[in-house]
Amino acid sequence: xxxxxxxxxxxxxxxxxxxxxxxxxxxxxxxxPCMRACPTHIDVASFIAKIAQGNLKxxxxxxxxxxxxxxxxxxxxxxxxxxxxxCVYAKDDTPIRIGDxxxxxxxxxxxxxxxxxxxxxxxxxxxxxxxxxxxxxxxxRDLRIYGHAVTIYEMHDQLGGLNxxxxxPFRLANDVAxxxxxxxxxxxxxxxxxxxxxxxxxVDSLLGNHDAVILxxxxxxxxxLGIEGDDYAWDALxxxxxxxxxxxxxxxxxxxxxxxxxxxxxxxxxCAKRLGAERVTMYYRRGEEHMTAYDFEYAFAxxxxxxxxxxxxxxxxxxxxxxFVRTELRDGRLVPIAGSEFTEPVSAVISAIGQSRLEQTLxxxxxxxxxxxxxxxxxxxxxxxxxxxxxxxxxxxxEREAMVVEAAEQGKIAARxxxxxxxxxxxx
Amino acid sequence: MADLRSTLAGISSPNPFWLASxxxxxxxxxxxxxxxxxWGGAVWKTLGTPITNVTSRFAGLDYxxxxxxxxxxxxxxxxxPLDENLREIRECKAAFxxxxxxxSLMEVCEREAWHELVKRVQEEAIDGFELNFGCPHGMxxxxxxxxVGQHPDLIEAVTSxxxxxxxxxxxxxxxxxxxxxxxxxxAAAAGGADAVSMINTINSLMGVNLETWNPIxxxxxxxxxxxxxxxxxxxxxxxxxxxxxxxxxxxxPISGIGGxxxxxxxxxxxxxxxxxxxxxxxxxxxxxxIVEQLCDGLNTYLDERGLTSVEALVGAAKNRITxxxxxxxxxxxxxxxxxxxxxHCSKCYIACExxxxxxxxRKVVDGTAILTVDQDHCVxxxxxxxxxxxxxxxxxxQVENGLPPxxxxxxxxxISATLS
Lengths: 428, 420
Fold this sequence. Notes:
The complex is a heterodimer of chains A (428) and B (420).
Chain A lengths: L15 H10 L7 H5 L6 H9 L3 H11 L3 H7 L6 H4 L11 H15 L13 E5 L3 H13 L2 E6 L7 H4 L8 H12 L4 E4 L9 H7 L2 E4 L18 E2 H10 L9 E5 L3 H12 L4 E6 L10 H9 L3 E4 L1 E6 L3 E10 L2 E4 L5 E4 L2 E4 L7 H6 L4 E2 L2 E2 L12 E3 L14 H24 L1
Parallel strand pairs in A: 1-2, 1-4, 2-3, 4-16, 5-13, 6-7, 6-13, 7-8
Antiparallel strand pairs in A: 9-10, 10-11, 10-12, 14-15
Helix pairs in contact in A: 1-3, 3-4, 3-7, 4-7, 5-7, 8-16, 12-13
Chain B lengths: L5 E3 L2 E3 L3 E3 L8 H10 L3 E7 L10 E6 L2 E8 L8 H14 L4 E6 L5 H11 L6 E6 L12 H4 L2 H14 L4 E5 L7 H9 L4 E4 L3 E3 L2 E2 L6 E2 L9 E4 L4 H12 L8 E4 L5 H9 L4 E4 L1 H6 L3 H15 L28 E5 L9 H9 L4 E6 L2 E6 L9 H5 L6 E5 L9 H12 L1
Parallel strand pairs in B: 3-4, 3-16, 4-7, 7-8, 8-9, 9-10, 10-15, 15-16
Antiparallel strand pairs in B: 1-2, 5-6, 6-14, 11-14, 12-13, 17-20, 18-19
Helix pairs in contact in B: 1-2, 3-5, 5-6, 8-10
């Protein structure tokens, strides 16, 4: 089985006629609810009006000035939970297709290759960004516009973070993720790839050589299941990374089990299915109503032919089978049901039970961490002066799902705070 | 089933929907198709000395995703020999004897020339003549069309030439490219016209191509003003029709033309004083088949209102139009927003805030804009209702202020009496 062979994108770009009809259907609301629902506050009514008036460049500028990750967000944003869910037409189930319109405008910019932004006059200030994912790139873009020198330290070989490595290709193709990163780098961002902060470059040198640091390193691997044979299981993110980078995966066989029920689990499930596995099944220790995947993701997985088993937890993984135990909620607590163990023949297991925290890296910066989450104030300043944080490393569980668009907004906020910080320091 | 039969100056047709003299009535083939589709009458594309046309000829005015809110054209009268047109008229009349066929005519302003043309054409069994004093482009440069329609003395003279020999009713088609349409209409009546039709097309320049800077439509990089028509001109036509319908010196029937696409448009023309309507742009946009929509819609409307005939509508609301000085200054309405159907788009708010009287209150509660009207200060201008995308969400409520009706005329005469 060859990698990358996961079929065409699940989103079709709209045709010119569809765009014309859709853009003109937008009411151009005042103080539009879609804009308020967007974490980056893209002026949606404005960018759609510009599309309707044939001003695609102005439209793309509206989008990207508010959200440097506008190309990926047009594809991966849970729009029904955000802008489209807030559209005044949503009540009648006919919201404006904002994501598709956004994609149209940014696609046109990508094709034109024109750079719409210019770096600000140099301030002489230097900022280090740890992590070149959506939060780091978003921060880098705005910091360059403010005129500060920026260096991104990225562990992977390429920029983009989860956009590049962690979102299945039929949802977000790499040419988009990499173009989007490059569009930021074009503004004069120094990039050090394949560099792990704390290993290849010391935290002290980072702090010593820059006027400010933004931690945007995201989260780590999927944690171990902690059961017998868990080393047989794929890390879902590693699995998706293999697919995306075209690395060999080997034979998944015809019965794939995915443990977990979040959006990454859906990605792993549908990816495995598209790679040719005959039966792909999600196993979740809780019930359908507890799934953290979006409803539309769950519906997508069903459409793709994924099977679902609820209230069962893995207890043992073998080379060709997994043993589960049935679970139930008793007084609000999830407990295994004694004697309910059952064994399923399985050719491959993928674990998608969340991501671990990069506590070691973060601790080295001497910032306060709560349960693996960097503690920040509203300005995204950590407990250490000059060190800021954005993106998944400040994402606390229990909030709404971690989103690219949220990371992009945090990158903007962190950049603004850094700008204020280094300018204040210059005056002092 | 209401009686859709209609009569204009003695010319009867099975329904009040005629095709206007225009490209759709250019040939017997087309008029046959139109009559098969159900059109009540057709005013044949203007007959006269055949001309040579240019390409291109038409341009559309789009609004957002909607096509042809209006169009204009620089096409001239028929480009085919008179004999050919007359033979086709004969064939159409033979095939559809119950439909009205009107011959539109254009000729230089000479008595003998008009006599000759009228006599020649009425050898066929036509139901009437329509004198084209309205075409605003091309022909007007040659002293015909609107060049006649802009000179009441010429209108009267030519109409009288035609009436000297015509054996069928004569309709005079008027140009809107004048200041007061009643003046040419009175001239037509004075010349003996049996009816007037209006409006012909309006002088217009459709636009400029932003890539090439060529005008639209363009003929080898140039253009000239063209005749503007279609849904966007309806309000202008309604006003002119009504002006003539209320004028005692006009006092002849009116065929209403200008932007009729839906049955509702026709009802408005009839209510304001037209005896029938003529249609062109809607057919150019959608084809002859729209007459079924027009007839069915009109019939349903008449039935629902308990009206048995189209005649019951003609002029029924014409006297509701008056001069401003007669309007009741004490009548008051205020806007009301139905919170159930409001979709919270805030269009009413920003329109009132920036362009009216700042009378809509807006509070964002849990991310939703709640919009209410400050009815103590609302001046009842209608703007919020106009911009609201939801039908009936914003309505105008009459305020019972207990004041007796009083017009400006009455008030100013009272003031004058006090001062004297």
